Amino acid sequence: MAVRHTENGTTASAGTDSVSVRGVTKTFATKTGDVSALEAIDLTVAEGEFVALIGPSGCGKSTLLRLIADLDTPTAGTIEVFGKPATRARRDQDYGIAFQQAGLLPWRTVAANIALPLELHGVPAAQRKARVAELAELVGLTDFADRHPDQLSGGMQQRVAIARSLAERPRLLLMDEPFGALDEMTRERMQTELARIAAETGAAVVFVTHSIPEAVFLSDRVVVMSPRPGRITQIIETAFGKDAARDESLREAASFFDRVTAVREALHGVPVPVAGREER
Amino acid sequence: MTTVEPAQRPAEDHRAARSPERAGWSHATERRLRVIAPITVGVAGLAIWQFLVSVVGVSDYLLPSPAAIAQQFAQFGPAIWQAALVTGTNALIGLVVGTLLAILLAALAARWHAIDGMSAPIVASLAVVPIVALAPVLNSMFGSDSQFGRQAIAALASFVPVFINTVRGLRQTRPVHRDLMRSYAATGAQSFRTVTLPTALPYLLTGVRIASSLAVISALVAEYFGGPRGGLGSAISTSAATSAYARAWAYVVAAIVVGLIFYLATALIERLVLRRIPVGGAQ
User: Fold this and answer.
1) What ipTM is given for this predicted complex?
2) CATH number for the domain formed by residue range(s) A1-94+170-268
3) I want to staple B232 with a disulfide (CB 3.0 to 4.6 A). Which of A105, A229, A248, B87 is the partner?
4) Which of A67, A90, A95, A101 to probe the B interface (max B CBs under 10 A)?
5) Which chain A residues are within 8 Å of B9, Cβ to Cβ?
């Protein structure tokens, strides 16, 4: 994974950056007045970098992801994805996306669900079939290609959603708490899988989560956010090294616990006297 | 990925768990009982009916005996078949046309809220149009040799439930699917075809199932108010007018059969389509 640690607030040329967010503010109009969801957000994600957004509910981390995906538009500021405006990047299919809900179409088989984006964008059937077979293999669901989603467990459904998000070989993956609804064991396994897939594809990832160990385990940088209004309070580099294997040994490494503690302190705003074992 | 979580849904196990208090009965026995019980009740009912007429002596014009009705049914078989064909055809044409119009208008109403607002009062008034009032008007409008009036009434009766259900179904699209289609930069037509319509399909089919019985009833009732001869409704009123009560009842039996056929056919379609298109369960 090519890791380039870019400082928060860098406004230099964004030509090679995957995501460049500059001075972004998002305000939602409600009946009781405007609610500020995000305020003055600056964030750059380098090519191939894995960035986690973490913070309590209402800190605007999902909103920020939706803005990058151009599912919403910012009230102020600019967002560029691979040097293009976010809208253009969405139209060009420059990113793949996965949500907390797998969002599979229940009337389609696993294979047809993975093929959905390819189908919509007119990829010929033969190519589609080959790509779907590849992706099913990648997420370990080859034997389940003909099943329908209601015959799969939550973890398997989420893997289908990840395969679908990778269908068009995007160089950027946007993930909004994709493992939030899974049990802890499945979740850890999925994290290991995702780390492997991200390394194999070399795609940059923006990953929203509210689990501290998950954020630390997966990312190169953890972006800590605070609510009302949502803003970035701190960015913590995990600095495990670009070749560090993200496997069970990392989960038990001292450096892992150090980072978990650092992120927790950043979240709570005060140093925690004793290094805790685990948050979740 | 080497690990594979097991599929969570054991196929039919819930059935066994449903009635623990009758655990002594095997599946086969229970299934047989489900068929035998209603038949027994039906036969007993007919026997009591026959007993009332032939032994207690309820007069024939009040209640013809089942045997007399069956005899009339056999004697007028071809005529009954012809009449059922006329009514069935009218109901079918009405059901198909009404359903197609309802889907079209529902799609427009779901797409453009202005159309929804415009159509709401019209649909509300269509829903309360009394067939008995409309039938004579349409029959005189289209002349006494046209089936059009009857088909139009059946279409009208079918339209309302299909429209209401389809509009509801078209609004069930989940936000996550909408976001997904937007992230794919899918066109409106693509989203409609791949997400909106399949989501609405179970609702639509329920509407059609409800409409199927209404179509038969409306086509039949419309025959009471003029128009060409033929059809079960005409035959029932003619037979009753000439005091052939048993024959009138034979036609009523045929009407029930036609209605059931429509209902069962649409229920079967619903079942087959929903089996091919499983809904729910996916997150």
Assistant:
1) 0.81
2) 3.40.50.300
3) B87
4) A101
5) 150-151
